[in-house]
Amino acid sequence: MSKLREAFSVKRGDMSFSNHLRKLAQPIWDAQLKHPFVIALGDGTLPERKFKFYILQDARFLADLSRVFAAGAVKAPDSDSALRFAKLAEETITVERSLHESYGTRWKMSAEQMTAVPMAPTNYAYTRHMLSVAQAGSAAEMTVVALPCAWIYCVVGRHLLKKGPPPKHHPYRDWLLLYASPEFAEVQEWMRQKVDRWAKTAGTEEKRRMEESFVISSRYEWMFWEMAWNEESWPV
Ligand SMILES: Cc1ncc(CO)c(N)n1
Ligand SMILES: Cc1ncsc1CCO
User: May I ask which residue range the UniProt record assigns to the signal sequence (predicted)?
Assistant: First the structure.
């Protein structure tokens, strides 16, 4: 596109709302790819202890993300969207259960022991943020608050596998393959379509809330890596 047409289309506001959101959060997204946890996860040098901390927190995170999708099924304005959110709620529980099974065996922990792990501060704050927006907001706001989860993991997964599939002996191979998969990419594509559609009829105030929720969720995604890297705990 020529510079002139580019400037013209921006002026006319041709950019989709989801791309507008991503642009707002771009510095935060760039910072994730440089986070030491993400780099070490990709090259396989991440200490198992930190990975274990992350997976145990993430299992609890996914249980709440599933509730956020379930709220989407309640709020969806049409039955196709309701069905898709209900499926996402189900799939998220399935992914959470498979974490319990595979890593439970590896670390000799029962499902009860895994769910009894207390949430670290950042995980608690992030999931409260999502649950509160999902409960108080519209279907569009619910979708936006959960969009960085699906979209950032897709970007991170693909970034880490840019140079090709992980070798058979890579300790975090399954994780990388899950998030770099086309099936996972489809989740954020569908959510973006919904956001772009619903943003067309959203008011100025609602759009402002969507921008705020998206940026806050993006920040919490960065903070989740930081939480796991530092094995964060409650100060008192
Ligand atoms: C913290 C976090 N964000 C996003 C995903 C992927 O949805 C995940 N598994 N965990
Ligand atoms: C968004 C998301 N994150 C982990 S599982 C899931 C739902 C679809 O696999």
Answer: none
DSSP string covering 94-132: HHHHHHHHHHHHHTT--HHHHHTSPPPHHHHHHHHHHHH
Q: What percent of the chain has pLDDT over 70?
A: 94
**Total domains in the fold of the chain:** 1
Q: Which ligand is nearest to the CA of 185?
A: 2
Q: Which amino acid is at 205?
A: E
Pocket lining for ligand 2, CB < 6 angstroms: 62, 88, 91-92, 95, 149-150, 184, 187
CATH number of the CATH domain containing 136: 1.20.910.10
pTM of the predicted protein model: 0.94
Q: Which residue lies with its CA nearest to atom 3 of ligand 1?
A: 149
For 42, the token pair is 């990709």
Nearest atom in ligand 2 to the alpha carbon of residue 146 is 1
